[in-house]
């Protein structure tokens, strides 16, 4: 496998490739993030968020033998409104299959991985937030370290799931951390909105980054848009380029 080349500076100016503070984010080692023996729980609003937001983290956790639990809140079937190529019925089956293939590409132990699928309707999670809290909390323990999307990520589903997960973790006494996802693609003029003082950098080696990118390409339904109905691809080229960064950013 070839080494990953340097990030191309020709991409649009966004926080992920322009923010000066990124270089100054302090590193954190895994033991300080997830203590030895603790279970890590990743709560993803949509299929694919667990890979795009934390595919490197998942690999590092699995490599060090941490028990893992994934909670996929929705099935992602509303990602292509109005599409004849990807109607809801097809996506409700296809997107979980894409996730299974993506996790396989990450090298996760699927035979022992506990994976909860919520089946909530995506693009409507903010209206179900009060129901999400007890749903998530029933799968948590006080010794868990729980990760979900940032509560100010700029996407209603991401923010609702982040808030619900924070409340669920607090109910059981578990540790909770947030991971920005959409926020990295805000304009560089908005970098002051990122809580940099809370940010920590988990470094990833070349192979871990490569596997994360390879896993993201398992989401075939998200790689191509439908210009004829005005749909852009969810996994755009610039988002895939961001996945080449050699670290994950965690908000402590």
Automatic annotation (TrEMBL):
Q: Name one Pfam family in it.
A: PIG-L
Which SUPFAM superfamilies does the annotation name? LmbE-like (SSF102588)
- InterPro entries per the UniProt record, alphabetical: GlcNAc_PI_deacetylase-related, LmbE-like_dom_sf
**What Gene Ontology terms describe what this protein does at the molecular function level?**
hydrolase activity, acting on carbon-nitrogen (but not peptide) bonds, in linear amides
- Report the superkingdom from the record: Bacteria
The name under which this protein is listed is N-acetylglucosaminyl deacetylase, LmbE family
Q: Which organism is it from?
A: Pseudomonas saponiphila
What lineage, starting at the top, does this entry show? Bacteria, Pseudomonadati, Pseudomonadota, Gammaproteobacteria, Pseudomonadales
